[in-house]
């Protein structure tokens, strides 16, 4: 005995509802790690914001005043030589660091002797004396792959990031490494990081960009 409403079998509707709920529950992964400097933010597979679609963000500052980080895997269309005429010899691709203050230039690197640089992870430094960094690049003491430049940054006001994490917009990861930040091709970074996390995250890495294709 079953009910039919408008030509639809209610028992079939229940089965469909269960499948949808199972999928939604699958994404309710309940972040256990808290954001802090040196950790990564990984966008969930279907995050709608085009600024952060399938991105990896390195957090460089997280405190009571807010959060600052840089998108690691979203190149811009600019080279450093396009932005600073005096640096015409440097053909570094500049990344999209985030939607905040895109008229500002930022950088991370693995040069421990740069004055004023802040260590945010093992062999990963943020900022420091710009002229000193450029001199190292000019003299060949630092390789192009030792530095990442960004236009703009990703920023959150106090408690804003925590609210976004609560609704599972971001996955927090402690798998930050020098190799990931500087040596991994940008088009492989998001997928490879999720695979390294294992479990359900490995499955996320294979989800198509268009959820209707899943």
Show the helix and strand layout.
Blueprint: E1 4-5, E2 8-9, H1 10-27, E3 40-43, E4 56-63, E5 66-71, E6 75-79, H2 80-83, E7 93-96, E8 100-109, E9 118-121, E10 124-126, H3 130-139, E11 147-156, H4 160-166, E12 170-173, H5 178-183, H6 186-197, H7 200-204
Parallel strand pairs: 7-11
Antiparallel strand pairs: 1-2, 3-4, 3-12, 4-5, 5-11, 6-7, 8-10, 8-11, 9-10
Could you explain the architecture of this structure?
The protein has 214 residues and is an alpha+beta fold. The chain has two domains: 1-30; 33-213, 3-Layer(aba) Sandwich (VC0467-like). Helix content is 29%, strand content 29%. It is built from seven helices and twelve strands. It has helices at residues 10-27, 80-83, 130-139, 160-166, 178-183, 186-197, 200-204, and strands at residues 4-5, 8-9, 40-43, 56-63, 66-71, 75-79, 93-96, 100-109, 118-121, 124-126, 147-156, 170-173. The strands form two sheets. Strands 3, 4, 5, 6, 7, 8, 9, 10, 11 and 12 form a ten-stranded mixed beta sheet that branches. The chain has a two-stranded antiparallel sheet with strand order 1-2.
Offer a few descriptive terms.
disordered N terminus, alpha+beta, 29% helix, single chain, globular, 10-stranded mixed sheet, VC0467-like, 214 residues
């Amino acid at each position: 005995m079953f009910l039919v409403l408008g030509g639809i079998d209610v028992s079939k509707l229940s089965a469909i509802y269960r499948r949808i709920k199972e999928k939604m529950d699958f994404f309710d992964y309940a972040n256990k790690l808290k954001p802090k400097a040196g950790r990564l933010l990984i966008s969930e597979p279907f995050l709608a914001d085009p600024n952060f679609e399938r991105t990896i963000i390195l957090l460089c500052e997280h405190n009571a005043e807010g959060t600052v980080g840089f998108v690691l895997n979203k190149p811009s269309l600019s080279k450093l030589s396009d932005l600073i005429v005096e640096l015409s010899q440097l053909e570094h691709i500049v990344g999209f660091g985030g939607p905040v203050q895109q008229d500002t230039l930022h950088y991370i690197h693995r040069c421990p002797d740069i004055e004023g640089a802040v260590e945010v992870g093992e062999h990963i430094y943020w900022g420091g004396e710009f002229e000193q960094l450029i001199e190292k690049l000019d003299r060949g003491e630092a390789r192009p792959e030792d530095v990442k430049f960004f236009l703009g940054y990703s920023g959150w006001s106090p408690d804003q990031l925590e609210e976004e994490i609560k609704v599972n917009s971001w996955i927090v990861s402690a798998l930050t490494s020098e190799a990931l930040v500087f040596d991994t091709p940008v088009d492989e970074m998001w997928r490879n990081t999720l695979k390294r996390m294992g479990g359900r995250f490995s499955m996320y890495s294979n989800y198509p960009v268009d959820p209707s294709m899943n």
